[in-house]
Design goal:
Order of helices and strands of chain B: HHHHHHH
Shape of chain B: extended
Number of strands of chain B: 0
Radius of gyration of chain A: 19 Å
Number of domains of chain B: 2
Largest sheet of chain A: none
Helix content of chain B: over 70%
Oligomer: heterodimer
Largest sheet of chain B: none
Largest interface: A-B, 108 and 75 residues
Distance between the termini of chain A: 53 Å
Number of domains of chain A: 2
Helix content of chain A: over 70%
Number of helices of chain A: 12
Shape of chain A: globular
Strand content of chain A: under 5%
Structural class of chain A: mainly alpha
Radius of gyration of chain B: 21 Å
Number of strands of chain A: 0
Structural class of chain B: mainly alpha
C-alpha cells in the first residue's frame, strides 16, 4: 500500500535537492533574473505536493544536506583572512553600521507589527528575524516567544533580503561591494551572504563578516529587552 | 579531502565549545572565529583549505533550500497573519538594508585609487 516508503530514505531528500539545484544552475546561465533559492523551493514544494510525499520524508535527507552549512560557515574564514587588511582598515565602519542596522531592525519590526495587528507571540517571535536561525531561536526562547516561528521568520527575511537586497540598495545609490556585503549580511544573515558570494568574493567576505558580527551585536542588544519582559 | 577534514574539525570544535560554555554565539560562528585565529597564527596554511572552502562557498545557496521548503509546515500560522507578517518582514528588511548600507558607505575610508575604478564600473 505504501508506495512512498522509499522516499523516507535519506538519499531521496539529498538527491531531490541537488538535482533541482543543478538544474537551477544551468537555467541561471540563460535566465539571469532567476533566483536559485526561489526556483528550487517552488519546484520542490510543487513536486512534494503533487507526488504526495510528506514533508517529513523529504526532511530526512534534506536536514543532512543543510548540516553542510556548518563547514560552509567555517569556510568563510578563507576570504575573510584574504581580505584581512581591508577588514582591519574599515573595522570601525563595519561595527558601527552593523550596530545601527541591527538596532533599527528590532525597532522597525516592533513598530510595523504593533501598528498592524500585533498578536503578541508573533511580534515577539519576529524581533530577532535578521540574525541566523540558531541565534534567533535562542533569543526567541529568552523572550518567551515561539522559537520555531522565529526560525521561519529568519528564513523569510533571508529570502526577501537575497531576492531584492542588491537591486534595492543599488537603487538607493549604494553600490560599493563592501557596503553591499555588510548590508546583506546584517539584514539577511546566511542567505544574504550566499547571495553576496554569488555576486563577488569581496562582497561575500564582508557579508559573512557582518553576519557573524550582527549575531554577536544583536545578542548583546537584546539583553536590556529581556529585563523589560522579566 | 584534507580541506574538508580541517573545516569539519573546526565546526565540531565550535559546536563543542558552544555546548561547554553556553556562549551566546552558535557553534558555527565560534568555529569560524577559531578558524580565523588558526589562519592568523599560521597554524593552518591557506592552500590546505582553499580548494574545499571555495567549493562550499560556491554552493552555499544549496544548503539553505531545505529550510525554505520547511516553511510549508507553518502555512496555517503564516496565512492567519499574512498581512502583518509580510509587511513586517519586507518593510523592516529593506529599512535594515538601507540604514546599514548607508552608514557603511559614509564611514568607509576610501583612498583615491580605490574610488577611481569604482566610478568607471558604475558608468559602464
Amino acid at each position: 500500500m505504501n508506495v512512498l516508503a522509499w522516499t523516507q530514505q535519506p538519499l531521496f531528500g539529498i538527491a531531490a535537492t541537488i538535482v533541482v539545484y543543478a538544474v537551477s544552475r544551468i537555467l541561471h546561465v540563460r535566465f539571469k533574473w532567476m533566483h536559485p533559492i526561489l526556483f528550487c523551493s517552488i519546484v520542490l514544494i510543487g513536486f512534494l505536493t503533487i507526488a504526495n510525499v510528506p514533508l517529513d520524508h523529504y526532511k530526512v535527507g534534506a536536514d543532512i544536506l543543510s548540516l553542510v552549512l556548518g563547514p560552509a560557515t567555517i569556510a568563510l574564514g578563507v576570504p575573510i583572512y584574504k581580505y584581512r587588511h581591508l577588514v582591519k582598515k574599515q573595522f570601525k565602519a563595519i561595527c558601527l553600521s552593523i550596530t545601527c542596522g541591527s538596532l533599527v531592525g528590532i525597532v522597525s519590526v516592533a513598530a510595523i507589527m504593533l501598528s498592524l495587528d500585533g498578536a503578541r507571540e508573533v511580534v515577539l517571535s519576529m524581533l530577532p528575524k535578521s540574525v541566523s536561525s540558531p541565534i534567533a531561536v535562542e533569543i526567541s526562547k529568552s523572550l518567551g516567544a515561539m522559537p520555531e516561528l522565529s526560525a521561519v521568520f529568519t528564513v523569510f527575511t533571508g529570502v526577501v533580503g537575497s531576492l531584492f537586497g542588491t537591486a534595492f540598495l543599488r537603487m538607493t545609490g549604494i553600490r560599493d561591494e563592501v557596503s553591499l556585503g555588510i548590508a546583506l549580511g546584517t539584514a539577511a544573515h546566511g542567505f544574504g551572504t550566499a547571495k553576496s558570494l554569488a555576486d563577488s568574493e569581496k562582497q561575500g567576505t564582508f557579508s559573512g563578516l557582518a553576519m557573524g558580527l550582527a549575531g554577536l551585536i544583536t545578542s548583546i542588544l537584546f539583553t536590556p529587552i529581556y529585563m523589560f519582559f522579566m | 579531502m584534507l580541506g574538508f577534514a580541517i573545516l569539519l574539525s573546526f565546526n565540531i570544535l565550535g559546536v563543542w565549545l558552544h555546548n561547554l560554555l553556553h556562549l551566546p554565539l552558535p557553534g558555527n560562528v565560534l568555529g569560524l572565529v577559531l578558524f580565523l585565529i588558526a589562519l592568523g597564527m599560521k597554524w593552518i596554511k591557506l592552500e590546505w583549505v582553499e580548494h574545499s572552502a571555495q567549493f562550499l562557498l560556491d554552493h552555499m545557496l544549496l544548503f539553505f533550500i531545505p529550510y525554505v521548503v520547511g516553511i510549508v509546515a507553518f502555512m496555517p500560522v503564516l496565512e492567519a497573519h499574512w498581512v502583518s507578517i509580510s509587511a513586517g518582514i519586507v518593510g523592516s528588511t529593506l529599512i535594515v538594508l538601507w540604514v546599514t548600507g548607508f552608514v557603511a558607505s559614509k564611514l568607509q575610508k576610501f583612498t583615491v585609487e580605490e574610488q577611481a575604478p569604482k566610478r568607471k564600473e558604475d558608468a559602464a
